[in-house]
Amino acid sequence: MEETREYDLCVLGCGPGGFAGAMRAFDFGVHVCIVEGDEIGGAGVKYGALASKTMWELAKDYAVANRVDRGYRASGLNVDFKTLMGTVEEAVKERQYQMLTQLETFSPQRWAGAGSITLLNGWAEFHDSNTLSVQPRSGAAYQIKAKNFLIATGSCPRPYPGIEVDQRRIFDSDGINNIEEFPKRLLIIGAGVIGCEYATIFSNFGHTRVHLVDNKERVLPYEDGDVSRFVSRNLEKDGVKVHQSATLRKVEHHPDYMRAFLDFPDAHSEVLEVDNILFSVGRKPNLEKLKLENAGIQVDERGYLTTGSDCRVAQNIFACGDVTCHPNLVNIAEMEGRMAAKVMLCRVIHPLNYHNMSAIMFLNPSIATVGLSEEACQAKGYRYRVAYVSNALMSRPIAMRNTRGFVKIIVHDDAEMKILGMRAGGPQVSNVVTAIAHFMDHDKGATDVLKSVYPHPSISEVTQECLRLLLGKSVYKPQAFPDKMWVKTWSPDKGYASPQGRKLDTCRIGQ
Q1: At what angle do helices 429-441 and 460-470 cross, to 10 degrees?
Q2: Phi, psi angles (nearest 5°) of residue 50
Q3: Please, what CATH class does the domain formed by 170-281 belong to?
């Protein structure tokens, strides 16, 4: 007979979502166990957000130090790849040990207060909706019984049909940190966020010729066309060769290089010689080992768990993060994990709101988003007003000598002008988008937001000027700078027009 252990809540997976959910449940004085088969932190720490963003920060700093157009020049600048990746590993370990420290602090052996957190290493599978079995890395299996379960097992990279990822010459995003030196030529397959971010990282270091390939007509295909073009132009400025509407057909391995064969819709092909390949073609949920059918749970046609705003999958089983069909973002996973803990313990005050989720794409420059894009507004048939202001007109970016960027704000085209969404590019955009997300959560319009006093000089003033432009009272005028600022309306029956009703062409973000 297997040993049986009992808890109030069993969390499967100790990534950001599982950890956040476990700690929120602990706040309510319950006994929680977390079952983790790999390293704590999951993809959000070990393989994804923290590791890649650490590398991005190092690449950004290196690119700035390497500039020669500001009146100074760094002499003898070089980068040691092994030391660089050691710095990335330090950041990962720092976060992992912070998480482990907290888990140990509130373990039953250490904590004398209400509730507890127990970390268990092993792989779990359901026996029924109240019981699962855990196979540890060593030793005998045991059973866990719990009143509630939270599935937070995360995701892994999707395979590319017909080509094996060996994590030596051909990598996915979980294995790219295993690379031992800067490749001279890197082929990245997939121009979504992860692909564009790694293209930015390797191009910023200046040691790698980067080819970015996608079978769509543009990078970031789910974003507005003008945002996509802005990103593509900047990647190309930084030396990235973008191959759009291309499909990787096969790879030939040679002792010192690989040949990649790309096919295009017009029936022509292109052959590239590269040293390494990175696949970034999406992720899939880690659910295969759980034997969900034993708990009466079915996945959808894409392999995800279906949840509502309460994060519930079944009566006492909840899910958060990448195993659900919501965007694979750490902030969403944490929010869902915390919400699941509140629902199962009847502590919900505010419902979960997916409409105003803000996100950052770590590019050069970075892109921040919140709410609806223009194309999403058009798909919904909304009448809207949209304004755009380039960073080139504002004092802080000018002082920073970093004017590649913009703010674009979309509002309802009515008297209240409630904010529908925002897209911003440039330095410090995470701060800019957070403020707008806050106003959207409180259902504020453009006039309400302008009641705040914006500091000078600051990046936030670009937002202020964009809001003023929506109201027709900006300091700088689009008639004087038509390539740097504009305001337009859109309606289902008339398309784009100026606020005065004159029909216009499709909006375009300037340089």
Answers
A1: 50
A2: -70, -45
A3: alpha beta
Burial classification of residue 167, based on how many CB atoms lie within 10 Å of its CB (0-12 exposed, 13-18 middle, 19 or more buried): middle
Backbone angles phi, psi at 498, to 5 degrees: -75, 165
- List of residues 6+ apart from 111 with CB closer than 8 A: 105, 117
Res 510: pLDDT: 45
Fold category of 365-497 in CATH: Enolase-like; domain 1 (3.30.390)
C-alpha 11/C-alpha 6 separation (Å) is 13
* Kind plus residue range of the DSSP H or E element containing 368: strand 367-371
Which CATH architecture does the domain made up of 3-156+284-344 adopt? 3-Layer(bba) Sandwich (3.50)
Please give the pLDDT value at position 431: 82
pTM above 0.90, yes or no: yes
Burial class (CB in 10 A: 0-12, 13-18, 19+), 314: middle
Which residues on adjacent β-strands are paired with residue 274? 258
Give the pLDDT confidence of 29-64 residue by residue, as tens digits: 999 999 999 999 988 898 888 999 999 999 999 999
Q: Rounded to the nearest 5°, which phi and psi values hold at 124?
A: -110, 150
User: Which token pair is 184?
Assistant: 């001279």
Q: Closest by alpha carbon to 448, among 413, 415, 486?
A: 415
Q: What is the pLDDT of residue 498?
A: 83
- Give residue 1's pLDDT: 63
Residue ranges per domain, the chain? 3-156+284-344, 170-281, 365-497
Q: What angle do CA 240, 245, 250 make, to 5 degrees?
A: 85
The pLDDT value given to residue 511: 39
**Low-confidence stretches of the chain (pLDDT beneath 50):** 507, 510-511
Q: For residue 331, what pLDDT is reported?
A: 93
Spatial separation of the C-alpha atoms in residues 119 and 123, rounded to whole Å: 12
By C-alpha distance, which of 134, 103, 99 is closest to 116? 103
87-119 burial string, b = 16+ CB within 10 Å, else e?
ebeebbeebbeebbeebeebeeeeeeeebbbbb
According to DSSP, residue 450 is labeled T
